Amino acid sequence: MQWQSIITNMKSLRIAILSHDPWIDLLGKALADLKHEVHHVEINTYHKPQDARDKILGLKPDFTLGRNYYDFISFHNNWSDEAGIEFKNLLEASQIPHASWYLDSPAASGNLFLRKKWLSGYQPNGTCFFVTDRQDMSFFHKLSLPTAHLPMAAERDLISRQMNQDKLTHYQTDLAFVGTPPPASGHAAISFQSAQAVAAYYANLDGQKLFEVMVAMKNSGYDVPPTQPQILEKIGSAFFNFYTTFHIAPVEYHRERARLEKNIHQLTGIAKLPIAIDYRYSYYQLITSLWHFKKKGIRVYGGPDWSIWLGNYQSHYPRLPFDTELPEFLRAAKILFCLTKWQYYGAVHDRPLMTLVCGGFPLTDHREEIDDSFRPGEIVTYHSIEEADQLVDYYLTHESERREVIQKGQARVLANHTYHHRALDLVRKMSDHFSL
Fold first, then answer.
1. pLDDT single digits (tens) 348-385
2. In whole angstroms, what is the distance from residue 289 CA to residue 49 CA?
3. What SS3 string covers 327-354?
4. Which of 228, 313, 319, 351 is the most exposed place for a label (fewest CB within 10 A)?
């Protein structure tokens, strides 16, 4: 892509970024590289919605940009939810367009009822929603809100990073994983000795959570079944069966989750299953996979808590700083095992993209949008943990083919999947929709 020609022919816009996280920051950097005027507004430093609104008005931006709907609620600031709604209304009344990038699925972004309360108040002429997972577009279409597909991306500048040779040598290994371990209650008292034990732990957590919700609903006057121990036992059993019977099949997972949700609803009278099930199922599948690859000596980076989940597994290492260690690690490991969060139906996560740009080899689970993003031979995916095991063995013994995949995959990411591409798509959509 001829970036200089694009920049020359593109109108420069003034953009106010309301969120502060790594993905939005990288998108903001790409927008600035494309010669747009980018300002970061730290709305969590303002005590009143009017003060934050006035700061934004003073910048006179063409549009504002944030992540999910968190720009406006107490998750990122000290406001109450009511104050957040007031800020949203003030911003819309000012007729400043807003771009909201849903890096998370809207079905997994916070409390369901609060989310609907927020989104039902949005005006179609005020906000455009961008989703990383194409399947999530229907969520906003049903609310008659403008939506566009904006997948995850990789940082283009990583290709030109000067790698530290000592670090590359230090991180050399056949098979590795990097990620933050899941939280666990009572760390000192827990040491899981099998993946089944992890499933039982999560089943109990979700069952207990539903039990607590039932009690709260009953105390608030709702008509719910008696909160007897046998009900909690049935809920826990349903969750345990759910956690232990589904493996690496997103379509089946989402179908089964809907069935379980319906059954739990019938059992308890609760309108929605806790959104946390997606995260917990993701963790369970990840932990199960890492247990499987312990026999191959997989190195697990992310902190000492991994030993809790992996039966005191000793081959675990600290977290890797994004700027100073992670790029070398991604290149040095011969195979990086990846598993996409289960809140995504078909989206491609950013870790495989980043790994390819750094010159590494990601082995990731197959998702629907991978076929749209890559051509055959540009990335390697698996449909089951057994297939992943076979692919690890194959590419550890076929070095030339491994390097060919890296070369082709890296070229594809740089040609189509950098933050500069996403910034360009974002600006074009906002310009078209709001006539900027």
1. 999 999 999 999 999 999 998 999 999 999 999 999 99
2. 46
3. HHHHHHEEEEECCCCCCCCCCCCHHHHH
4. 228
